[in-house]
Amino acid sequence: MNRNRPLALLLAAALLLAGCSREGFEASLSRADESSAPQAQSGKPEQVGAVYELEELTADGIEGSYQVPAAADEAQEKAAKRISRSIRGMVKQLPELLAQDGAAPAITLESKVTRNDGTWFSISFSVVAGEDERRFGWGMTFDSATGGAAGLDSFIEPEALSVLLLDGPSAELLEEGDASEAQRAYLTAQGSESLCGRLLKSDYGDPQTVLDASYYLDGSNVVAVFAAPQEDGGVVRAAIKI
């Protein structure tokens, strides 16, 4: 773990408590400029990813479709297949992950590719499961050049992000009205340390962790996604500008 993260966390708390410029602080934590120049410290040739064409897929036992990258040429094929395998693996396990009393529920899936710019490939998912309409959601982000999972610290210090999630003006909840108020209260009750720990445990190889906490990129925002009580909407999405 980066040795500077505890310092970033303390700086986040100090600046927010002091009422300093959130815009300036948030900009100082962004890794966007660093991540857009892969060759910066290594001296190796830059790996340039693709703006992928999209292929629409469905999965057995699931209503709705989702999209994966499709390789337009041989140079893109390896990365596109790697991303596609990760996404398909997650979706196909949903019936088992969301089963109640051993029975797979009816599942409706919606998804949206939120970034596909040659640097990052990012996608968000929303799910409604069962007659009681339980709600779930998650996000996935990949390096477009390699097809590998993109760590949260590629964009922002995770500990500092967790502090910003609890700061009203910094975090935009993607629910409105009463649901938004309940979800903000849920995040506050969790605390920054717990939220950070959940995000750092998120692993595409372990779907349960992804359903608990994940993230995706949407334009200039990183959106943190957390499982929450169903009475609070089932899933919280909080956007932080980077």
Pick out its properties.
242 residues, alpha+beta, four-stranded mixed β-sheet, four-stranded antiparallel β-sheet, 26% strand, disordered N terminus, Lipoprotein
Explain briefly what this protein structure is.
The protein has helices at residues 5-17, 22-29, 32-35, 74-92, 94-97, 158-164, 177-190, 192-201, 207-212, and strands at residues 53-57, 62-63, 66-70, 107-116, 120-129, 134-143, 172-173, 213-218, 221-227, 235-241. By secondary structure, the chain is of the alpha+beta class.
3D architecture notes:
The protein is α+β, with helices and mostly antiparallel strands. The protein is 35% helix and 26% strand. Strands 2-4-5-6 form a 4-stranded mixed sheet. A 4-stranded antiparallel sheet has the order 7-10-9-8. A hairpin with a 2-residue loop joins strand 8 (213-218) and strand 9 (221-227). Helix 1 (5-17) packs parallel to helix 6 (158-164). The longest helix is centred in the middle third of the chain and has 19 residues, at 74-92. It starts with a helix and ends with a strand.
Name the helix and strand elements from N-terminus to C-terminus, one letter apiece.
HHHEEEHHEEEHEHHHEEE
Radius of gyration, in angstroms, nearest whole number: 18 Å
Alpha plus pi helix count: 9
Strand order, biggest sheet?
2-4-5-6
Whole-number mean pLDDT: 85
What share of residues is helical?
25-40%
Approximately how much beta-strand content do the residues carry?
25-35%
Low-confidence stretches: 1-11, 13-21, 35-45
Structural class: alpha+beta
Terminal CA distance: 21 Å
How many beta-strand runs? 10
Q: Characterize the biggest β-sheet.
A: 4 strands, mixed
Described by the principal axes of the CA atoms, the overall outline is globular
